[in-house]
Amino acid sequence: MIDEMKSRQILAASILAADFSRLGEEIREAEAGGIDWIHVDVMDGHFVPNLTMGPHVVEACRRVTDLPLDVHLMIEKPENLLANFAIAGATRLTVHVETCPHLHHTLNSIKDLGISAGVTLNPGTPLTFIKEVMDEVDLILIMTVNPGFGGQQLIKKTLQKVMAARKLQTLHPRDPAYIEVDGGIDPLTIKDTVHAGADVFVAGTAIFQHPLGARSGVQALREALKSGSVKE
Ligand code: DX5
Ligand code: ZN
User: Can you tell me the mean pLDDT for 126-137?
Assistant: First the structure.
């Protein structure tokens, strides 16, 4: 069952690029296009130089969709807010290794709240930082841009880390973690990330800034996935 689940190609829409004056509609439009997960980018103005949303927005998303809410915490001291996000309806909380001196404990605290735990690394952080917590996580997010803003270009070098993460994941076959990529994903770059071994693809700009709307944005990414991966 796990194999079946993890062999899927999952598209996650980052609402950071949505029109917040009509967030509910935007989510429903992405859903109509066949999106799998909603990705919520939480930024604190400290760990990253931008300030976005908190548990209140997660709770608002939960009221308009039953889809998994994939919450990406770009905040210092995430352990202070884990329960708030779980109560708000998060399906998974993904924390940055750079913000967690007690990573093993933080991941277990997330699981103790009855939700999934993910771990992520900035482009400049080596993969070895997560080697010891592979049994604690159901998702490894490899940042393909430096976190803080949408609309950036994918950093090609991070694809090597995606490949290495896939290798590391195969050493833990009992419950293989998702390999997620986030930042600069569009119908062209998504193919490179498939080739590197990713199976969850986060996109903001390519979905919510699509000239024909979020529904078309999701469909264009799905088409790109169907047309297969390409080699560099
Ligand atoms: C960056 C965020 C991403 C971002 C992706 O800090 O974690 O989720 O919104 O946006 P695009 O798809 O525009 O690169
Ligand atoms: Zn994100």
Answer: 97
Closest CA to 144 of 208, 190, 77, 78: 190
- Ligand 1 centroid to Cα of residue 134, in Å, is 24
Ligand 1 pocket member 152 (CB < 6 A): yes
Q: How many Cβ atoms are within 10 Å of 100's Cβ, its own excluded?
A: 20
Q: Please give the radius of gyration of the chain, using alpha carbons only, rounded to the nearest integer.
A: 16
> How many CB atoms lie under 10 A from the CB of residue 9?
15
Q: Rounded to the nearest whole angstrom, what is the distance from the C-alpha of residue 38 to the centroid of ligand 2?
A: 10
In whole angstroms, give the CA distance from residue 126 to residue 5: 28
Give tens-digit pLDDT for 142-168.
999 999 999 999 999 999 999 999 999
Percent of the chain scoring above 70 in pLDDT: 95
Residue pair 148/142 in contact by the 8 Å Cβ criterion: no
Beta strand spans in 50-170 (E): 69-74, 92-96, 116-121, 139-143
Closest atom of ligand 1 to 186 CA is 12
Rounded CA-CA distance 200/124 in Å is 21
User: Residue 209's Cα: distance from chain center in Å?
Assistant: 18
Indicate whether 231 pLDDT > 70.
Answer: no
Atom number, ligand 1, closest to the C-alpha of residue 146: 6
Reply yes or no on whether the pLDDT at 5 is more than 90: no
> Which domains can be identified in the chain, with CATH numbers?
12-227 (3.20.20.70)
